[in-house]
Design brief:
The structure holds two protein chains of two kinds. Chain A is an alpha+beta fold. Chain A has eleven helices and twelve strands. Chain A has helices spanning 32-37, 75-89, 111-120, 159-168, 170-173, 215-221, 224-230, 264-268, 315-331, 338-345, 347-353; strands at 41-48, 51-56, 61-68, 72-74, 92-95, 100-105, 184-187, 201-206, 236-242, 248-254, 281-286, 301-308. In chain A, the strands form three sheets. A five-stranded antiparallel beta sheet of chain A has the order 1-2-3-6-5. In chain A, strands 7-8-11-12 form a four-stranded mixed beta sheet, with helices on one face. Chain A has a two-stranded antiparallel ribbon with strand order 9-10. In chain A, strand 5 and strand 6 form a beta hairpin. The relative contact order of chain A is 0.09. A five-stranded mixed beta sheet of chain B has the order 8-9-10-15-16. In chain B, strands 2-4-7-6 form a four-stranded antiparallel beta sheet, with no helix packed on it. By secondary structure, chain B is an alpha+beta fold. In chain B, strand 9, helix 8 and strand 10 form a beta-alpha-beta unit. Chain B contains 15 helices and 16 strands. The chains are: A alpha+beta, B alpha+beta. At the A-B interface, strand 1, strand 3, strand 4, helix 2 and strand 5 of A face helix 2, helix 3, strand 1, strand 5 and helix 4 of B.
Chain lengths: 382, 437
């Protein structure tokens, strides 16, 4: 493995340096039908799950075939995507915000060969490589974070629970039978690199044990004032600690009962790890949305305070999600998002219908806004 | 024979959804075989070791990645995330496993030619594993060693005319919806504005000088497909201020059943015959629609542009022609003080090049936040701490009822001295002439 230089000279880093050029310009990559019809689209229509057409005022049409992508993918996999796009789409494609891959063709007769090709490609274990779906009143791909594959603060994995959940929800990825579209998201810790806090169903990794304190190293590895300032509940204070050998060191003390396990201290100070095989697990949240359609955007609400991490397939998590989806599918009105349905029937009825326990953990006690989530009316359902 | 046994991960190789485990195993096999005679610049068995370390996490229920060290490319403070494995002896191939964020093209359109170039570079100088895409929107190159960082940056900029994205306390890589490129709802050119602001603020993107991260996201309409209202410090959401365009013939075609409601999005179930009264008019949140005989009428002045009627009847109803965008500010995920949605600051502004008016507002907000924001304080948290009035003051915008859901329900107004006739300096002795102690 000989080192091969790109041309960069470490002795003269500024020589021929190119910086601040930004991304490639979007219109370099438009397929011709997109370049020609940008801003002229009249309407769109779903033809089958995963396939839709946009019609332009010029009479042109673009047929899009949407494929659920693993967000974590190899260059070998991307090259196969390229091969498909070369074969069917003149060498163009796009990705969606929710990690789907979209193949576009400019006439209807090109759709079926493309769909057949995509659905015909399987991995050795039988998984589809390029499942077509994820449109309309169904379930599209799960947006997610890194998890145990690459992150230092996760309370659960990401790609694993997503694979397990999408396997369970696959029929709804391939169908459009729901009252409205349903967005599932996963964030592997409270940092929420994805916008899971406004999803119909959110899977959130959560710690439940306060940080361990690596006293011997804490002052060497961390800026103690930053660790203290990082705590949103002021649970951390400076402390002098005597090590077993009698040496006194500067460190911190944590008021454990004030900790809400956000992990922000660990982000600032690696000598305060929270991760724990038993303490960590999953919070299920439900009823959020980002669209302004009919009702205002809403936050997701915590409906299950904790489920354990159960690698490799997280069965309690996927069972819970499946149950919520089925109850919603059977009970909600057409166009009603999950959160709108829950609000119409009342959250007391939501828990009853979804057969979820309502525990004290689900009553907000974090700061002022909590008060306004308590019931300040005599109106409730028995 | 795989380098590491992965009995738990192997259970993720069945079921209908694509398996990332299979994909990584196949990449590991391709690297081992190396049919293209690539001179791999990082360990050839990097993909085996990533599976090994992930399997160990599945066994331990904990991550095996350490905090990032300070790594990056010369002159930039972002775009590279340092990452080290906490079991480097067991998994030397991923001992150093740094991430690069590569600024994605607008709308995430690609040519295969360009994607292949990225693949070649990343196979040669990295793990060959990516995220397409990261949550912020970047192309993520997942895992390489420190000596490769400058080499990758050099090749990206010199060969591919491509820059890194943002990380740390800077402007994060802006991202947009598909917009006018392929959507009839887009009220402005999301890609054009996203690209313009990305180019204008390259310095802010690459050199962290902010109190914390700052995100721009561009949604072409109030459907908000990139979730800007939930996660951007400034959400740019397309809107219009004239009338919804109506094609009455198409309205009748929906009523008559020739056209499928909601563009066919509900075809997986028989919901019965389309009922315009029940499905559109009665669901309108402002009750501003009605049928006058065979004509659909909209009192546009009362419409709040929620998109429902347009979503249900896209061939009959179209967005207005006097278009622009709303700027909402302050959204963030939960850490630290709880999640916040963006708040309406500019109800309507035109989105036309060179976007000077928009930039003026952005820069006024940044001036305030950079002056007053505490370390790791998002804009939305500063807004909470100093109040919406302060934001109005620094942006020199006029108060407008469109900025609030409702007026305040307490009268505890912080009157300023100059707002009260005569000011606050008074003579106590003069007062006492009329009011005994």
């Amino acid at each position: 493995m000989a080192f091969i230089s790109s041309g960069y000279d470490p002795k003269e880093p500024m020589k021929d340096r190119i910086t601040d050029i930004g991304p490639r310009k979007y219109d370099e990559f438009y397929p011709p039908v997109i370049a020609k019809n940008k801003g002229k689209w009249l309407y769109h229509e779903y033809l089958e799950p995963g396939v839709y057409v946009h019609v332009s005022e010029t009479g042109d049409e673009v047929y899009t075939v949407r494929v659920g992508g693993m967000r974590l993918m190899s260059v070998g996999f991307i090259r196969e995507i390229c091969e498909i796009a070369d074969k069917h789409c003149d060498g163009y494609l796009r990705f969606t915000t929710r990690n789907n891959i979209e193949f576009m063709v400019d006439s209807k007769d090109k759709v079926k060969p493309l769909v057949d090709d995509l659905m015909g490609r399987k991995q050795p274990g039988g998984c589809y490589k390029f499942p077509v779906g994820g449109t309309g009143a169904g379930i599209t791909n799960i947006v997610h974070t890194q998890g145990w594959i690459h992150c230092h603060t996760p309370a659960t994995d990401a790609s694993g629970p997503v694979k397990a959940t999408m396997d369970v929800l696959f029929d709804d990825f391939r169908d459009m039978r729901l009252p409205a579209h349903l967005r599932v998201s996963l964030a592997c810790c409270l940092n929420m690199c994805g916008a899971v806090h406004c999803s119909d169903i959110a899977i959130l990794g959560y710690h439940r044990k306060p940080p361990m304190l690596d006293h011997e190293y804490l002052d060497k590895m961390c800026e103690i004032p930053l660790a203290i300032a990082a705590c949103p509940t002021a649970a951390i204070k400076p402390a002098k600690v005597e090590l077993p050998g009698g040496q006194k060191v500067n460190s911190v003390a944590v008021k454990n009962e004030r900790c809400m396990f956000c992990g922000n201290c660990y982000t600032m100070c690696p000598a305060m790890p929270l991760a724990d095989d038993v303490g960590d697990g999953i919070v299920i949240m439900a009823g959020g949305k980002v669209s302004n359609r009919i009702s205002a955007p809403k936050f997701s609400k915590v409906v299950v305070a904790f489920l354990p991490n159960e690698p490799p397939r997280w069965p309690q998590t996927t069972d819970c999600i499946k149950k919520i989806v089925e109850t919603y599918a059977n009970d909600a009105r057409k166009y009603e998002r999950l959160g709108e349905w829950a609000e119409r029937i009342g959250w007391e009825r939501f828990f009853e219908k979804c057969e979820l326990d309502f525990t004290h953990h689900l009553i907000d006690d974090f700061r002022d806004p909590a008060y306004f989530t308590w019931r300040q009316t005599t109106q409730f359902k028995f | 024979m795989p380098k590491h046994e992965t009995p738990m991960l192997d259970q993720l190789e069945t079921g209908p959804w694509p398996s990332f485990v299979t994909d990584i195993k196949e990449e590991a096999a391709r690297r081992a075989k190396n049919e293209g005679n690539v001179e791999f610049q990082i360990p050839v068995d990097v993909c085996d070791d990533i599976l090994g370390v992930l399997e160990l996490s599945y066994k331990h229920g904990r991550t095996h990645w350490k905090h990032g060290g300070i790594v990056g490319v010369f002159g930039y403070g972002g775009g590279v995330i340092g990452r080290y494995c906490d079991q480097p002896e067991m998994f030397p191939g991923v001992a150093h496993f740094h991430t690069l964020r590569v600024n994605q093209p607008g709308g995430k359109f690609y040519t295969t030619e360009y994607l292949r170039q990225l693949c070649d570079l990343w196979e040669f100088r990295g793990s060959g594993l990516t995220n397409m895409h990261g949550s912020t929107g970047d192309i993520i190159f997942l895992g390489t060693t420190t000596p490769q960082l400058e080499e990758i940056f050099y090749e990206l900029t010199h060969k591919y005319n491509q820059d890194l994205g943002g990380s740390g306390s800077n402007l994060r890589t802006p991202s947009d919806c598909v917009g006018q490129a392929r959507c009839e709802y887009a009220c402005y050119d999301t890609q054009a504005l996203c690209y313009d602001l990305t180019q204008t603020y390259q310095d802010e993107l690459h050199r962290p000088a902010f109190p914390y991260k700052f995100k721009f996201k561009f949604d072409g309409c109030p459907n908000c497909c990139v979730a800007s209202i939930a996660r951007a410090d400034i959400s740019f959401i397309g809107t219009w201020r004239d009338d919804i365009r109506i094609d009455q013939e198409a309205v009748q075609a929906y009523i008559g059943g020739e056209l499928k409601p909601n563009a066919g999005a509900h075809m997986g179930r028989d919901w019965g015959k389309f009922d315009i009264q029940k499905e559109v008019i009665d669901l309108c949140p402002t009750e501003c629609m009605w049928m006058d005989g065979k004509e659909l009428k909209i009192d546009n002045k009362e419409c709040t542009r929620c998109m429902h009627c347009i979503n249900v009847m896209p061939r009959a109803l179209r967005i207005g022609n006097d278009r622009g965008l709303s700027m909402l500010v302050g959204a963030k995920a939960p850490i630290l003080d709880g999640a916040q949605m963006s708040t309406m600051l500019v109800p309507f502004i035109k989105a036309e090049e060179p976007y000077d008016e928009i930039k003026e507002i952005i820069e006024k907000i940044w001036d305030w936040w950079m002056e007053e924001g505490k370390n790791r304080e998002r804009l939305g948290e500063l807004m909470k701490r100093q109040g919406f009035q302060k934001l109005l003051e620094v942006t020199e915008l006029q108060p407008d009822p469109r900025m609030v859901k409702e007026p305040r329900s307490n009268p505890y107004i912080f009157w300023k001295e100059e707002e009260v006739e005569g000011g606050w300096s008074r003579d106590i002795n003069e007062f006492r002439k009329y009011h005994k102690r």
